[in-house]
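Schema walkthrough. Field components (list of strings):
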Amino acid sequence: MGFIVSTKGRYALRVMLDLAEGDVGAYVPLKDISDRQEIPHKYMEAIMSRLTKEGLVNAAHGKGGGYRLARPADTYTVGEILMATEGDVVPVACLEGGFECPRAEECKTLPIWRKLDGMIRDYLNSVRLTDLLEGSP
Amino acid sequence: MGFIVSTKGRYALRVMLDLAEGDVGAYVPLKDISDRQEIPHKYMEAIMSRLTKEGLVNAAHGKGGGYRLARPADTYTVGEILMATEGDVVPVACLEGGFECPRAEECKTLPIWRKLDGMIRDYLNSVRLTDLLEGSP
DNA sequence: CTATTTACCTACTATATTGGTAGGTATGTT
DNA sequence: AACATACCTACCAATATAGTAGGTAAATAG
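Field assembly_structure (string):
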């Protein structure tokens, strides 16, 4: 079975939520987060690297360091976080970035994938990180 | 990148469309279809096996044999065809059939996946095979 | 200046899935 | 008997997933 969102994106979302729930503005060591969320610390490091490079979080070394949100919590969307960690989030290979299908013109199924992709994208971009805190989506 | 629908489902859909476009009721050899659709014949055989077992098409051996739709073309939905070939069509592993997440109760992200899954499922089940012929979805 | 704490970087691995290919067998028609 | 078709089994190369292991660099506390 193929999944549109892997552990990378799911874990990223949980970490961002953890950061949004705590004392926003303070740096939180990854170890604390991965303990709370029961996610392997070492694995999580690779994912944080993406989030840092994409500018979604700030990182600080040494004692008192860790990660914190780079912006106010309510300015993040779920879609943004997933894109940062997963790369493209698309339902079929036909829509992958850079791929150009030679049958695209004639293909009767392509419109379904386009529509589906639009729905998924619109939904994920419409949900704010803070919406998840209250459990309102 | 993970995709929710692989070539299996996409090819199956194209074959079903090909059958719906031609002389419905007559048996069409798979070779003809895979030539028209530019899909490897041998690979397609495995996919047809699923469609046959699920009762979506009828098969007939020997000369004059091949495959045909088992029901009127407008009674098929895209969702049905994809489920038959892909098994579960779900966006994340959390929702996979038989999987029971121990964090489900407390998980703040699960509602997104549920909602997303519902949207995808509803859409795919709402599109009829014949809708694709005119290009109306 | 040293110890500690944290992020960061590189490499490896086991397992599964995808997208096939190859070759033979069974069944039906002419 | 010849042929055309579906059906069955086995194999394979490439890629992605979900990690693990071990070290390096930077910041702070004492």
